[in-house]
């Protein structure tokens, strides 16, 4: 302390002191807390100087001096550059607590005005306050450092942190250097070690079930902490890497990391308005105590889409994707739920990411064959890119069948009794129409054998409609429902020829009246220009292409004509 009066046995105490955090809380007289719960620091008013430091002895000039026997041993002294006097490095106490000065050349005073001032600690930069905390922690308060030289080294380093000036300590003779170089080097070396909590402290990790995630501590302080076991959480450390995994849906939401060495809070006391009349306590919490790592198990659902194995998202015929049912099974085959498509899709409930499930079709939709294969769906964890919905497509084969037509028509009368003989109907055409849409999906033409067969047509109800053919009856349209796979729906169709008997009359060209002339001969040509021949069976059998009128001037052909 600066000895202004040049009295060897009396000296001024420093205004600001830092309390060794290994000690208990200081007794306070009047408390006024000004702190933010999210801040590291708390400021409390302790009281007047004479209450905080009862060993102070008042002087007539209002400046208080102290009895050195009440404050502890004087270890060293420092000279104040460009000032008259010096300051001591002395073991100081507040009550039974060891404290340190952080600002030289401040005087304790009493009386005068009562000044309230809580800003001094806040005016120090964050880095300066953190430096004070580290020096205190790794200095005199550190395990094995409770020696006189570490006390002096801690005091001088704190002064330097606050003022930016290095004060070389001397023995109390004022000339012999007090060597603390080794202690300063040890403290600084400890301070170069990684400080604070690991870089991932208090984060929330989203992950899947049994999907290990490795976190790297970029600050390199992970080794300073031990992990407290948690239910459903597996954690292991390898250097600066922490690997964690959620092993059960019934898991603790966090794990706790406990620091391997005890925490210490920093307590700084200072006076108001540059005087030491009123003393305030500024407490800084340990910036790196225990912390937690939080976990959030991710969940996702499965969207199953029904598709056609040939046409994809488009149905065929009257088939539909609606109403397909699927079982969601675990890898042991247990059914977890059953879902049904509404339209072409169905969605499951949520399952933990990291789970592998099987999607198996139970009932196919109308018009489709059931797919007997199961789709394996892995709800794969991919960090922040993990989707909330995983998709799978189940493709079914549509039911298909064919329509076959056998067409027959009448042949000319044959034999003694003029029986009708059928023959294949070649060249007849039939449209195949999907009833629900009215669209012609195929047109069949019978071959020389009177046969026609469609390609495989998808599930549905179809209308078979025959084209009109001159000279033949037209078949009334009929329906065919294809609902069995690979079945041929066969229809034997008979069309009778449209025929008419022909009678020829001889008439007058002017009057239109019939001329009853017998024996007039006629020849008749068909549509192709060929003469028509017919067979006469009575009174004798012969074939002729010449036809004669009878007595009334008419001729009746023996056989009907096919109408073209």
Automatic annotation (TrEMBL):
<feature type="domain" description="SpaA-like prealbumin fold">
    <location>
        <begin position="422"/>
        <end position="496"/>
    </location>
</feature>
<feature type="domain" description="Thioester">
    <location>
        <begin position="99"/>
        <end position="179"/>
    </location>
</feature>
<dbReference type="InterPro" id="IPR013783">
    <property type="entry name" value="Ig-like_fold"/>
</dbReference>
<keyword id="KW-0732">Signal</keyword>
<dbReference type="Pfam" id="PF17802">
    <property type="entry name" value="SpaA"/>
</dbReference>
<dbReference type="InterPro" id="IPR013552">
    <property type="entry name" value="Thioester_dom"/>
</dbReference>
<feature type="signal peptide">
    <location>
        <begin position="1"/>
        <end position="30"/>
    </location>
</feature>
<comment type="similarity">
    <text>Belongs to the serine-aspartate repeat-containing protein (SDr) family.</text>
</comment>
<protein>
    <submittedName>
        <fullName>Uncharacterized protein</fullName>
    </submittedName>
</protein>
<keyword id="KW-0964">Secreted</keyword>
<dbReference type="InterPro" id="IPR041033">
    <property type="entry name" value="SpaA_PFL_dom_1"/>
</dbReference>
<dbReference type="Pfam" id="PF08341">
    <property type="entry name" value="TED"/>
</dbReference>
<feature type="domain" description="SpaA-like prealbumin fold">
    <location>
        <begin position="302"/>
        <end position="383"/>
    </location>
</feature>
